């Protein structure tokens, strides 16, 4: 049966006229329409025979990794381990970065994340910093200033700001919530963070 199918397929392919060099094949144009239709019937016949024999169609032969999920055998982190790696960012003191812009800052050794809320009618003066910055707009919109041009960023937009590029922002009629990612961490924001934490803990500012 397999040999018969191969022979028939070879015969059908032979019915196709050779293509001029440099042209892309177009079965509908280069092959006889009736032969192309027969080739489709041949494929349908193969799948029909497979189903009769209990075989799956080729497109259904993908492994189902969730069919028998492994049992969770790993232990949960204890409280000390959890607190070492996880922080609930709303619990971090709000820090005023500029007037009308307040943030919860999360610091790593080589990266910083800012959960920032910018109030309507606010303004970030154009500035530069060594850190590369990625900003993700969560809600509202902002007119980002980049090298003297405005970029209207709305919910779902992400902008990448290379190191030392001049940028700022205008806030319009609505508040805007964003996530800013800085790498490496901005030292001026790190200083604000340390002062806010010390103040919260009752230490010196």
Protein architecture, described:
By secondary structure, the chain is an alpha+beta fold. The chain has two domains: 59 residues, no CATH class; 113 residues, Jelly Rolls (Sandwich), CATH 2.60.120. Helices cover 28% and strands 29% of the residues. The protein is built from five helices and ten strands. The protein has a six-stranded antiparallel beta sheet, with helices on one face. Strand 1 and strand 2 form a beta hairpin. It is extended. About 16% of the residues have low confidence.
Layout of secondary structure:
Layout: H1 2-14, H2 27-30, H3 33-52, H4 79-85, E1 95-98, E2 101-107, E3 112-118, E4 123-127, E5 132-139, E6 141-146, E7 149-154, E8 158-161, E9 167-170, E10 176-183, H5 187-200
Antiparallel strand pairs: 1-2, 2-3, 3-10, 4-9, 5-8, 5-10, 6-7, 6-9
* Count of folded domains: 2
State the oligomer: single chain
- Contiguous uncertain segments of 5+ residues: 5-37
Main sheet strand line-up = 1-2-3-10-5-8
Helicity level: 25-40%
Q: Ends: how far apart? A: 86 Å
Mean pLDDT: 80
- Could you give the order of the helices and strands? HHHHEEEEEEEEEEH
| Highest-level CATH class of the largest domain | Mainly Beta
Overall spatial form: extended
Could you tell me the CATH topology label of the largest domain.
Answer: Jelly Rolls
Q: What's the total count of β strands?
A: 10
Summed up, the helix count is: 5
Radius of gyration computed on alpha carbons: 31 Å
Strand content: 25-35%
């Amino acid at each position: 049966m397999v040999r018969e199918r191969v022979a028939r397929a070879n015969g059908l392919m032979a019915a196709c006229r050779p293509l001029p060099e440099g042209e892309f094949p177009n079965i509908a144009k280069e092959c006889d329409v009736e032969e192309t239709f027969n080739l489709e019937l041949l494929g349908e016949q193969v799948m029909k025979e497979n189903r009769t024999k209990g075989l799956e169609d080729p497109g259904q032969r993908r492994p189902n990794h969730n069919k028998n999920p492994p049992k969770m055998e790993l232990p949960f982190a204890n409280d000390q381990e959890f607190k070492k790696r996880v922080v609930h960012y709303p619990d971090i003191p709000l820090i005023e970065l500029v007037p009308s812009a307040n943030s919860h800052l999360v610091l790593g050794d080589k990266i910083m994340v800012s959960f920032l809320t910018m109030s309507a009618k606010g303004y970030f003066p154009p500035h530069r910093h060594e850190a590369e910055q990625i900003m993700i707009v969560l809600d509202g919109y902002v007119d980002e200033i980049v090298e003297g041009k405005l970029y209207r960023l709305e919910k779902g937009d992400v902008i990448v700001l290379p190191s030392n590029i001049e940028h700022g922002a205008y806030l319009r009629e609505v508040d805007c919530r964003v996530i800013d990612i800085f790498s490496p961490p901005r030292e001026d924001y790190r200083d604000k963070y340390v002062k806010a934490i010390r103040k919260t803990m009752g230490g010196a500012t």
